Structure prediction request, 302 residues.
Amino acid sequence: MTESPEERHLRSLFSALRHEVDALVPAFEVRTAQPVPTGHRRLVMVTATAAVVVAAIMFARTERDDNDPEFGLDLAATTWVAPTDFLLATPGSDLLRSLPEIDIAGYTPQSITRRGVVDTSS
Amino acid sequence: MTGAFAGGHPMQESELRIKLDEHHRDAFGWALACCEWDRTMAEDVLQSSYLKVLDGRAVFAGRSSFKTWLFAVIRRTTAEHRRRQMLHRFLPLTLVTGRKGSSVADAESELLRSERSAQLIAALKTLPPRQRQLLHLVFYQDLTIRGAAVVLGISIGTARTHYERGKERLRDLLAEEYAK
Prediction:
């Protein structure tokens, strides 16, 4: 692909810049002690410490004292009555909760007719 | 220690060092371009990139040339470096980390260059990063647009668009500079 005069001009400008930069290139070396993680590690440690402190404060604020009368209730020993429970106490409601007692000691099954009337003539 | 593959077998550290040394000059130029000509930052980024390659955090799978792959590693490392710098800017971590963010202006003054090169760098700095990096890869590093697209992790169509727009914008900016 042929370059336009504009592209050739740009290439010459970049080439001149490259020539100057090449004179500044540092020698190739790989430092084993990486500069970035040193600070990074400290940053991580500080962040972790701060997180622990914040968590401790949050825990202290939400922790309940069992001796506190407000929170020290024995739930197993308490009962709760709803304020509307009185509405369920209708008149005669005790009749629905108990069985009537009928004395049938003197009767045999044959003495009771289909209609439930006791036949005492026989 | 291994960190890359060549021809299906993992490359030894010694091989990797030879490869890195071979591309060191180009890599430094690319790191400078990625770091907006901040020499201190470019050297830090280059060191971090080399360590990534040598300790196996970055693995060359042989899908592109070693140079293209190394440039992509440098680009990603620069992005990580910038994120850390942003964190340092918003949080007073200088005391914690014991490091100060490098000053672009200070580092720039270390670069001895002609007036034309200074104008070129000034113009490049005003371009969006993608356009600036693409022009650098094509004109400074002599990569094809396809190769530059691989380094930048973009499609060739997008790379062509950035190339054309960047070229046009750079021409206008340099014309303004020369007119001054």
